[in-house]
């Protein structure tokens, strides 16, 4: 699931960036928009690359505890890109399908991040309980002798 998300996000980013670049009307608009979009897309791609490295290191599955902060960063980067594209839709001549693609990608990333972070919190809570005596109330001992 995480790998399909990462691939989908990557495809949407590439398509969106290309569509935006070719959709510009004026050179001045294109330069400003291209620089801003390139910067936001690069920020997003760095996080995606980090997630890919995490998945590669653990047999193509993301560890929820390690990936939660990265997924949150991805959601933040996508929201920032989406906000820029929405705000500058007319100025940058952003095609509707590019905006739809990044919106869907951001929603999907948000859903995966929420799931991973929920699991990460549960794992952390279970580890904490084990460290504090396996979750048994303080002072309670296991039965001894024949049962």
User: How many helices?
Assistant: 4
Give the biggest sheet.
Answer: none
User: What is the share of helical residues?
Assistant: over 70%
Topology as H/E string?
A: HHHH
Unreliable spans are 20-28
What's the total number of strands? 0
Mean pLDDT: 78
Shape: elongated
Beta-strand share of residues: under 5%
| Distance separating the two termini | 45 Å
Question: Can you characterise this structure?
Answer:
The protein is 76% helix and 0% strand. It is mainly alpha-helical and 147 residues long. The protein has helices spanning 2-22, 27-57, 64-87, 96-131. The longest helix has 36 residues, at 96-131. Residues 20-28 have low confidence and may be disordered. The relative contact order is 0.14. The termini are far apart.
Labels describing this entry:
147 residues, mainly alpha, 4 helices, elongated
The gist of it:
The chain is mainly alpha-helical. The chain is 76% helix and 0% strand. Helix 1 (2-22) runs antiparallel to helix 2 (27-57).
